[in-house]
Amino acid sequence: MKLGAAAALVSSALLLTAACGSDDNSGLPGAVDFSADHIECAPSGSLLASGSSAQANAMEVWVNTYQANCDNSQINYKATGSGAGIQEFLQGRTAFAGSDSLLGDQELADSRAVCRDGGQAIHLPMAAGPIAIGYNLPGVDDLVLDAPTLALIFDSGITRWNDPAIAALNPGADLPDLPITAFHRSDGSGTTDNLTQYLHGSAPEQWPYEPSKNWTGKGGQAADGSSGLVGMVQQNAGAIAYFELSYAHQNGISTVAIDTGAPEPVEVSVENASSAIAAGEVVGTGGDLALELDYATREPGAYPIVLVTYEIICDKGNNPGTLDLTRAFLGYAAGEEGQGALAEIDYAPIPDGIIEQVRDRVAGMS
Fold first, then answer.
1. Domain interval for residue 45
2. Rounded mean pLDDT of the chain?
3. What start and end residues bound the annotated signal peptide (predicted)?
4. Is 180 found in the same domain as 83?
């Protein structure tokens, strides 16, 4: 069934179940068009998937668009968090899992017990989210920071906004003599994991801690979830925190441009995040498309603080009863229309050279 332009928020098919330690990136910005020009539909069926809530908005658009254009298909995605999604997938309870982190060696080995015909799990990068550094600094609309300075700010090594290190990056700015209040997540999250991947990868001397979903820096104040960090930035002059770009846009929060060593500081945007992903490298083998990002990239226009969400599937499928629908749905999500919908909701589409490989892996499920 092909519907006309349907502009509505329909979420009955998407179960946005909160989970401890998951990102709460839910709530689409206004009405969203769930029409599509062309989707290769599976004959019929239903499937269940779960995992990353950082991709909840993308899944809401993908699920509702697919169902609006394909008869007799029911797709339920539970945004329970990456860890819970992986666990359910490895128990054979879901067709695929969404994850902001890569499977470990033991998890890959465990996947062979649920994957068909001697197959195993592979990672398919399907969406990316720029992580914005938001701040509240009266009188300063354009702020530039670099990795060493950010690391020191979040580790309580720089404590006032007129510090010489910040002033050197912002010549001519009227920086106030105001205390810095750095906020971080109180709950474990993929957003924290990816921010600390950037800090450790780009400024290891200033951020000596290993990347982690749980905050390991010194000092600062904590808040629960990205929405909690947004509230703290809004309420406190001198505050700085990190959250998905959609939160900054929806709440009118100023964001930091990153001095990466490129000729110009890089603004946070979906386009610039896609450029950073394009500069990364596929390190998976045997059909796996796990990525290694270059957090220290100096590529012009590449925004380095990004979160990549993977759909984790069995390379040969894990359930014959859901194989056709899984292949059709993920084929749409990885296709031009599915990827094209991402930028409208503050996600970064996966670059062409990588997403074409994703399409090949999805089509090859058999």
1. 14-129+283-291+308-363
2. 88
3. 1-18
4. no
Angle between helices 320-334 and 352-363 (to 10 degrees): 160
What are the tens digits of pLDDT across the range 214-237? 899 999 999 988 889 999 999 999
Please report whether residue 328 resides in a domain. yes
Q: Is there a single domain that holds both residue 136 and residue 256?
A: yes
Pairing status of strand 45-51 against strand 73-78: parallel
CB 237 within 8 A of CB 257: no
Does residue 114 belong to any structural domain of this protein?
A: yes
CATH number, position 220: 3.40.190.10
| 3 state DSSP class of 302 | coil
- Does the predicted model carry a pTM greater than 0.85? no
Q: Is residue 182 located within the same domain as residue 80?
A: no
Residue 252 CA, chain-centre distance (Å), reads 20
The CA-CA-CA angle for residues 291, 297, 300, to 5°, reads 120
Residues whose CB is less than 8 angstroms from the CB of residue 100 and which lie 6 or more positions away in sequence, other chains included: 23, 52, 54, 82, 190, 193, 194, 307, 308, 309, 310
Place of tokens 């002033």: 167
What is the per-residue pLDDT for 33?
Answer: 63
Distance of CA 87 to the CA centre of its chain: 20
Tell me the one-letter amino acid at 91: Q
